[in-house]
Specification:
Layout: H1 2-24, H2 27-40, H3 50-70, H4 74-98, H5 115-134, H6 145-169, H7 184-187, E1 198-207, E2 210-214, E3 227-237, H8 259-263, E4 268-272, H9 282-296, E5 301-305, H10 308-315, E6 321-323, H11 326-332, E7 338-343, E8 346-352, H12 359-363
Parallel strand pairs: 4-5, 5-6
Antiparallel strand pairs: 1-2, 1-3, 4-7, 7-8
Helix pairs in contact: 1-3, 1-5, 2-3, 3-6, 4-5
Length: 373
C-alpha cells in the first residue's frame, strides 16, 4: 500500500506542477478564461481581479505540487488540494455540461483540451486526491523541516517571479496564433479540412390554430393550406470550422477596412497600444529610436488600438492609427504596448515594451524599402 500511495503522490504532484507551469508562461490566458466564466455568470464586477486570481492560483498549483512531492505539511496541503480539485471539478463539469466552453484553460493555450477531457481528468484527480487525503498521515517528509522550508520558499518565489517576468516580456513559449513565423492573413482563414457546424432546418407552420414543425423533406403536399410562422436552425453537431485568428480587422476614422492594405506591405511595423493617456512612458524614448531606424528604411509604422479618436486626441500622434477588436488586440499583445515587425503579413519579430531596445538590431537586417511618396 505504501508503494501505491507514493506512486499516486508523485503522479498528482507532477501533474499539478506541470499544469501550473504551462499556465505560468502566460497567466493572462487564465485571467481571460476566468472573465469568460464571470461574464456568463453575470459577475463582471470581478473582472478587474482576475489577473491576481490567476497569478495566485497558478502559483498555488506549483507550490502544492512540490509540497506533495516533498511530503511537506500534508495535513494542510491535502485539505487545500482537496478543496481545489473539488472547485476545478465543478468548473470543468459546468464547462462540459453547459456546452458554453470548448475548453476550460486547464493547460493554457499550449495544450488545449476539450471540456469533456478536462472534466474526466478532474474526476480521476479527485479520486486520487481522496486516496491521498485518507492516508495523509502515512506520508513522511523527504527532508528536514529546515531544508523543506527553504526549498518551498524558493519555489514560491520562483512561481511568482516567472509570472511577473512574462507579463512584462511576453510568454516564454508563445502558443498563440500570433506567434513569430505565423502569417496573420493565412491564420485568419478557416483551415482546410475543417468540419463546419451541422444544422437541422425546421419550419414552423400553423393550420386550424395548431402549430406544426416540419423538416424540408417532411413538408406536406397541401402546404398551401398552412400558414408559415417561423424557421429554426437547430445545431446538431458542433464543428471546428473557425480560423485561428478571429476579429483582426483594421480600420481608421472612416471605418474603411485597411487590413489587406497593411498586411500586404513588404515590411511594416505595428504598435499595439491601448493605453491612451498623456503620460510619457520610458518605452516612448526607445520607440522614437525605432521610428528613426524605420524612417531610414522607409518602413511604415501603424498604431493599433481600440479607439482611433481617443488615441489621437490624447497622444497627438502623427502616425496612422487603426482600431481593432479588443479581444483580437489582447490576444495579439499580451503586454501593452507590444510591437510587431511584419513581412507581408508574416510576423518576423514580436517585442513587449520592456524589450524595445532589441528591435533596432532586427531592423538593421531589413533591406531599405522604396519610398511610398
Amino acid at each position: 500500500m505504501k508503494v501505491t500511495i507514493n506512486i499516486i503522490r508523485i503522479l498528482v504532484g507532477i501533474l499539478f506542477i506541470f499544469s501550473g507551469l504551462v499556465k505560468a508562461i502566460d497567466p493572462l490566458g487564465l485571467s481571460y478564461k476566468m472573465q469568460e466564466f464571470f461574464e456568463l455568470w453575470k459577475m463582471t464586477q470581478f473582472n478587474d481581479y482576475t489577473l491576481w486570481l490567476s497569478i495566485i492560483m497558478i502559483a498555488f498549483e506549483i507550490i502544492a505540487g512540490v509540497a506533495l512531492l516533498l511530503g511537506w505539511r500534508l495535513k494542510l496541503f491535502s485539505w487545500l488540494l482537496l478543496l481545489l480539485i473539488v472547485f476545478f471539478t465543478f468548473l470543468t463539469g459546468y464547462a462540459y455540461l453547459s456546452g458554453k466552453f470548448k475548453n476550460c484553460g486547464c493547460f493554457g493555450d499550449c495544450i488545449p483540451i476539450t471540456s469533456f477531457t478536462s472534466f474526466i481528468k478532474d474526476i480521476i484527480l479527485l479520486v486520487l486526491i481522496l486516496i491521498l487525503f485518507a492516508f495523509r498521515n502515512k506520508i513522511k517528509p523527504l527532508f528536514s523541516e529546515t531544508l523543506n522550508v527553504l526549498f518551498m520558499l524558493l519555489i514560491a518565489a520562483g512561481s511568482f517571479w516567472l509570472q511577473f517576468y512574462v507579463l512584462k516580456h511576453l510568454p516564454l513559449i508563445d502558443c498563440l496564433p500570433y506567434r513569430v513565423g505565423k502569417n496573420i492573413t493565412e491564420n485568419g482563414k478557416i483551415p482546410s479540412g475543417a468540419v463546419p457546424d451541422s444544422f437541422s432546418i425546421r419550419f414552423i407552420y400553423e393550420k386550424a390554430g395548431k402549430e406544426y414543425e416540419f423538416s424540408p423533406a417532411e413538408l406536406p403536399a397541401d402546404l398551401n393550406t398552412y400558414s408559415y410562422k417561423n424557421r429554426i436552425d437547430k445545431l446538431v453537431r458542433k464543428g471546428n470550422a473557425e480560423p485561428p485568428i478571429k476579429g483582426f480587422n483594421l480600420s481608421g476614422v472612416t471605418d474603411i477596412d485597411s487590413t489587406d492594405f497593411v498586411l500586404m506591405m513588404p515590411y511594416s511595423i505595428l504598435l499595439f497600444d491601448n493605453k491612451v493617456n498623456k503620460k510619457t512612458e520610458e518605452w516612448e524614448k526607445q520607440f522614437q529610436e525605432i521610428r528613426k531606424e524605420a524612417d531610414k528604411k522607409n518602413i511604415p509604422i501603424y498604431i493599433i488600438t481600440t479607439s482611433v479618436e481617443e488615441y489621437v486626441q490624447n497622444t497627438k500622434t502623427d502616425l496612422p492609427v487603426f482600431k481593432c477588436d479588443f479581444t483580437a488586440i489582447r490576444t495579439a499583445a499580451r503586454a501593452n504596448p507590444t510591437l510587431y515587425l511584419l513581412k507581408m503579413g508574416t510576423i518576423e519579430g514580436k517585442w513587449s515594451y520592456a524589450d524595445f531596445d532589441k528591435v533596432n538590431k532586427s531592423l538593421k537586417s531589413v533591406p531599405a524599402q522604396p519610398s511610398m511618396q
